[in-house]
Each structure stands twice: as structure tokens, then as C-alpha cells.
Amino acid sequence: MTRLLIVDDSALMRRLLRDIFAQVGGFEIQSARHGEEALAMIKAGKPDVVTLDITMPGMDGLTCLGRIMVEAPCPVVMVSSLTTHGAEAALEALRLGAVDCVAKPEGLLSLSMESVRERLVDTVRAAAGARMRGSFRLAERVRHKAAALPAAHPRPQASGIVLIGTSTGGPRALDAVLTGLPAGFPWPVLVAQHMPASFTGALARRLDQICALEVVEVTEAMPILPGRVHIGRGDSDLVVMRADGMQCAPAAPSTLWQPSVDRMVTTCRAHYQASDIIGVLMTGMGNDGAAAMAALRAAGGRTIAEAESTAVVWGMPGELVRRGGAEQVLPLNSIADALAGMAAARSPDLCR
Q: Is residue 141 scored above 50 in pLDDT?
């Protein structure tokens, strides 16, 4: 039985969330009306997982989360509105240590909650088994190192491309890897991070501020540029149309998560030699990307799976390992150096 604490100032939201988890079964449910009450209950009852609203009177969700991470660490899933402010706050929560964030639907809650039921339950279940890392401030340490690097400049067409797929726990993992890439990194980087469309723009803007490389959100057809990180827009797929171009495409009916890692890798292979592609699969629940990256490796491409020791949820990278598709299995803080080394070996002139 999973011990779940629901924290929300809205009595209606608390009831709707309680009903959802009671119906699926397997949860022992408690609820709190505000941050102060939540902290007391967490310290007394030690829940397996907490759902936490961001906007609450008194102690808001971010303040409460910060205190949870310091005083009584446990897995937390944020429940955020789809507004721009809500997206920025949700990303700050992920930086502070939340496992994941689920968008709170707008409109008539009793009806619209059905649209997020499956994702909410899957996310909370995954979070309950998530690994709480004491090193969640790794990104700040890497960011300090990257701040001294010169700004990146456009480069000639590179000889390779990096594809990164991630889900639950992904924003902090992206912080660590992308801030670790030097300004001289010569290859384009494409990222499929499972996340709503209202969040991916905020994610790209924040990464652009802290990375040596330029980071952009892909919202339409645009060129693939060396030395740039391209974040796929949420609720759609990042599709490679040609060797130097990509677009934000409607999600395929067969894909469960967007942007789809499998689809990004598969469309890229149609325009790049397998030997020119490096696939990186990091923390996340489910198996998106495992099949496509295993096939990439079998065809001569290079692949990296995040190690279980650092992954918040070892679902996606673990599945790649189980399929025999991971050339390397690396802890999070070693992935950027591995990518830089591979690019330097292939493009020595561009890395000088």
C-alpha cells in the first residue's frame, strides 16, 4: 500500500484527487489544506509520495517544497496550472527537488480531471518508487562552471547529431548534462522531454540562460544548427524532416508520451547515418525511446543510458539496458564529458 499525502488549499481539488486514487486502489490517502499542515503530517507520518499544489495561501507550494527537501525529504509531484506563471513555478519546483509536475486542468474540474487521470496516477506511482538524490544541487555546481565559458557562435554543418530523451526527473538531468557541454560543442542536440506544451517554452528559456550553448524551443519548422540545443514542444512530436531541418508535428496516435523519443530517433535515422547519431536515454518512467535507440545501436549508432544509481526513475534507460541497446551506462555527471569526447573524436577541427 502506497502512503499518499494530497496537499491543496481547494477542498474540491482534494476530493477529486482523493477519488481518483481511491478508485484505482493501492493507496492509503491523507490530505492537507496548506503547507504548514503538510509539513507536520510529513514529519509525523512519512508518506511515500506527496502531491503538492503550487499556489496556496500562507506558505506557498515552492516554500513548502524547499522545506520538505531540507527537513523531511520525500518524493513530491507538483500539481500546477497551465498558465505561464504556473509553468515557471513548476520548473523552479523541479529544480528544487520535485520528481515531476502534472498540469492541473482548467475549466470544470470534475470533468477535466478525467483528461489527466492516467498521467497523474502513473506519475504518482513512479514517484513513490523514485530515488531521492542528495546531489540534486549538482546542476548549480555545473552551472557555475559553465558560466565562465564564452558564448557559442554558429558553426559549419557538423558531422553528427545528439538525440536526448527523458521524462520523469528530466529537467534536473538536462540541467546537469546540457550545462556540462562546452561552448565549442560542435553538434546539434535534439531533446524530447515529456512535458506539456505550456512548460517546454519555459524550460528552454531557463536552459538558455544557464547553458554555454544556445537553447531554443521547436514550435515550427526550423533548421537544425550545430552547437544549438533544440527542445521539442510539449504535446507534439519533434520530427526530423531532412539532415538540416526539423518541425514540431502533431503527435502520432501510436505514441503515449509527447514529445515521443521513439519518433524523434526514427525520423532522424531516415536522414542521418546511424554512425553519425548519439542517442542518450535518461531518467523517466515507461519505455519510450528504448526500442528506437536499441535499433540505432544495432545499426552502428552510439548510445548512452543513464545509470540506475543517478536516475530518479530507471524506467526508460533501464529498458534500453535490458534490450542490450546501451553502448555505455553512465552516471549523470559523466554524460556531458562522454558526449564532448565523442564529438571531439569525430570532429577534432570543430572542437578546437
A: no
Q: Is 110 a catalytic residue?
A: no
How far apart (Å, rounded) are the C-alpha atoms in residues 201 and 331? 27
Rounded to 10 degrees, the C-alpha dihedral 202/268/301/319 comes to 60
User: 199 and 333 share a domain?
Assistant: yes
* Conformational region of residue 267, where left means phi above 0, alpha means psi within -120 to 50, and beta covers everything else: alpha
CA-nearest of 295, 293, 280 to 330 is: 280
For residue 198, what are the domain limits? 138-346
Cell of 111: 470533468
> Which of the following is catalytic: 31, 167, 198, 347?
167
Decide if 133 is inside a domain: no
Domain identity same for 70 and 164:
no
| Residues 60, 96 contacting (CB under 8 angstroms) | no
Q: How are beta strands 302-306 and 100-103 bridged, if at all?
A: unpaired
Give the CA count within 13 Å in the CB-facing half-sphere of 259: 34
46: left (phi over 0), alpha (psi -120 to 50) or beta: left
DSSP string, 100-165: EEEEPPPS-HHHHGGGTHHHHHHHHHHHHT----TTTTHHHHHHHHHTTSPPP---SPPS-EEEEE
> Can 230 be counted among the known catalytic residues?
no
**Among this protein's residues, is 167 annotated catalytic?**
yes
Domain boundary among 100, 128, 156: 128
Catalytic residue among 53, 236, 288, 347: 288
Half-sphere exposure in the Cβ direction for 213 (13 Å, CA): 28
pLDDT surpassing 90 at residue 133: no
Q: Is residue 351 part of a domain?
A: no
Summarize pLDDT for 276-308 with one digit per residue, the tens: 999 999 999 999 999 999 999 999 999 999 999
Q: Which of 194, 230, 236, 262 is catalytic?
A: 194
What is the distance between the alpha carbons of residues 246 and 222, in angstroms, rounded to a whole number?
A: 6
Residue 246, classed as helix, strand or coil, is strand
Whole-prediction pTM: 0.86
